[in-house]
Each structure stands twice: as C-alpha cells, then as structure tokens.
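Predict structure. Input: Lipid/polyisoprenoid-binding YceI-like domain-containing protein, 176 residues.
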Amino acid sequence: MSTTKWVIDPTHSEIGFKVKHMMFTNVSGKFSKFDATIEAEDSNLENAKIEFTGAIDSVSTGNADRDTHLLSADFFDAAQFPEIKFSATSFTKINEGEYELVGDLTLHGVTKSVKLAADYGGLMKDPWGNTKMALALEGKINRKDWGLNWNSALETGGVLVSEEVRLNIELQFLQQ
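Output follows.
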C-alpha cells in the first residue's frame, strides 16, 4: 500500500493553550511558528506517522512582558530549549470521527507521553483542487511534568499560575 504525505497549512492552523491565572481567569496563548507532517497508509490515519515541531520563541499571549517572562529560564528557557516537539506513537479510533492521539511530547529538555482527544474532520477539496484534511486536538498536561515549575503564592491562598495547561489545537493539512 502506498503512503500519503500531508504537510501543515499554517495559515489555517493554530497551536493554542490556556492556563488559569490567579486561580479564576484563563490566559490564552499560541505558538505562531510551527511545522507538522503526517505520513499515512490511508485516510483514517491509524498507524500514521505524525510529527510536530514548534519554535518556543514564537509564543504569544498578547502581552510582551508576559511573553518575555515565558521565554526566560523561569519557564520555557528558550535559549537552552528552543523547540517543542511531538511524535505520535498511536492514533486510535474511538467512535466515528473521534480518535485518541498518543505521543511523546518533548519540552524544556523533558520527553513524556501525552494523550490527546482528536476530532478528525475528514477530507475536503478546496476551490483550487487541493485535498485538505482537518484535525482538532484537545488535552491537558501538567507543566511541572516538564520542569516548568515557576510560581508565586497569592496572599489569598492558591498560586498565580495553574499547573494545568489546556491544549487547543486546530490543524489543516494539505495532501502532497
């Protein structure tokens, strides 16, 4: 069986995350420089090779001071660890259109397995005849598992930044 290769369409994709701030509001961020590929034997993506890399210095939360802090040694330490990587180990069908994506996430010099819920949007031809594929991914990770430990206690109890990070990723791929 032949292998089909897919490359990310960055203009129609978003790598986003949310973290609770002061225990009661969410701060959203995203990475604007990234690359992803899929190599699959068929369009259902089971047993597909899925790879992702993102540039840590492209993180944006809409606040320059906060972004500078995120790039520092307190958090991502972008000078020492300039990239985030993900490599799939399985893509398993749960129900029609619903999958579980499991893979190794490398961040801040640490590699750990993560599980993400995947909504497979299927295939579509764009107006120019290109075949596109859509995936929406959601999941949660604990930033401390990757050594992102910085925090500050609040006078009222609790902490400034939640340990839990919610991932919200929208991907569009172009068939090669």
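The domain at 4-175 is CATH 2.40.128.110 (Lipocalin).
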